[in-house]
């Protein structure tokens, strides 16, 4: 009998989607463990792999030996390896794809970043003229100890000032030990409803819970109180957020409570910063991590709690391989590791609310705002009536007057529009031709700041045209409004207003989010204009007005979730108003005031919306009453994509005649990045009968059909 190891090699090939067995050399037997990275010979090359299993057994002559152990300790826990296997089966992806998502790139390459974070504290009194350098000094002086990133988040151009302050010995640099003893600062006294929620969840550790609380009800305080128990019992906690934009304010609150034991994880960090957080989690140095969806794969070994804030957000669904949903992964990992999972939202996903109704999740409520504050009043403005009365501007008279009144009272306002750019499409009024991206067959968006036309799918840019490329006419016009246009309109109406814009064009780095949050929170701007990234989670106590410029942008998309997304966006956007001492007001501009998603958002009536939407889903056999599989066939020619889709659909109908199969049909976005796309949508009403065999059949189909991608329970049907 010899020492053997099953290794998952880092090669994404259908025929290789299983562990391969290698002999463990005698020299390595005391140094190798499950979850370590190793180097192994594979065919004619040497590749990286992960040790999946160690055991004794008979060796065969063709078995090769492991070449080297690349990491001194395991990079994956046994629980994560189990999770990888489950994800591979559930989402029809290859094991190496899952492992790549779990292991940071720097770790896969075997590198280590040993940079020590820099911290600053005041070492001498300094009083200079009002300048950036003095402002930075005062900022550091107001805190006992502050790290470099926090300073630069508050003052993005402060690096030279920091160097100067250190050079003149007004500020000193130290390396704060990451293993400093943890001290938990006391939090706010919880309200009675908050205390009842905490007691209910703590009474059943290791369970999954839905925390349904209106906007501003104090869900974060509940999270903190629950995590206090984890920290005191030497357990770890993970808090997941849907947007990088929310990270700065949440991290500030958690670090005020738990100090430098809080780690951060999201794509906006450098590889060195992500490696540091990953390594601190592995070494049990970090007790609490705040992060985006991929933080669910961090190597916790004493995980006691997972919180998914704003659990309804579609950004928790990964659209590239592996195409997982964070909520499902968190619930599976929580069950496997005995961790409590809390899903928090004012507007829960139908799937979570239905699971709670069926007893699959515990269900707790926070029905009122914290400190007895009232929910904001909401007004619906029918833009059809505005047109009848001759108003063709972006703002209705109601929103215009409300904005001017708020600014006159020295209050802040947020204007929400889920479209970037200045104009959302460019049209020739002579022949009706709309300018489209030649690679993606979608309308180009005009960006006035750089005077370019941009495709938001492949990111190609084109020069602005003065003549129609089809008929040569000069009757080119720009239609639709994006965030740039809204900013211009605010500045036209209120020339003295200080306006910030938040969208994917202005928020390109993690530092941008922190800078914007601090500027608006500290009152350095009057109006914040943005896309959906500002419609969730952010807490600005001086905002008394929220204006939703166009409530209908998502309502008529070819997607069964369009009503749910519209309701959630309207309620969440409106929830940014009236979170301080002043009452809030929300103005929603719509062309569909009678649609139930819009109408019920006016009264924040989630329960009624849930009933109406659930009735629709049951009648049409969509989730939560069916499992969905979306098959997307891509090819260089439309006819080739259509043929692949038709052949696959015929095969599926022949093998599983009880399936509800829609299509094939051209995808709503029929061409993206030069590739033509066709859809086939499968509904499984009885997963227990058809689910397992269909999963195997789809995985086989995926291995045989080039250009086929498969998504379980898709969140985007475009």
From TrEMBL:
Cofactor(s) required for function per UniProt: Zn(2+)
**Enzyme class per UniProt:** isomerase
Tell me the cofactor note. Binds 2 zinc ions per subunit.
Q: Where is the Helicase ATP-binding domain?
A: 200-366
Which residues are involved in binding Zn(2+) 1? 428, 431, 468, 471
Name the PANTHER family on file.
PRIMOSOMAL PROTEIN N
In Swiss-Prot or TrEMBL terms, this protein is called Replication restart protein PriA
So what does this thing catalyse?
Answer: Couples ATP hydrolysis with the unwinding of duplex DNA by translocating in the 3'-5' direction; ATP + H2O = ADP + phosphate + H(+)
What EC number(s) are associated with this protein in UniProt?
Answer: 5.6.2.4
Q: Which family does it belong to?
A: Belongs to the helicase family. PriA subfamily.
Q: Which Gene Ontology CC terms are recorded? A: primosome complex
GO function term, MF aspect, one: ATP hydrolysis activity
Q: Which keywords has UniProt assigned to this entry? A: ATP-binding, DNA replication, DNA-binding, Helicase, Hydrolase, Isomerase, Metal-binding, Nucleotide-binding, Primosome, Zinc
Helicase C-terminal domain location, by residue? 463-615
Quaternary structure, per UniProt, is: Component of the replication restart primosome.
This protein's encoding gene: priA
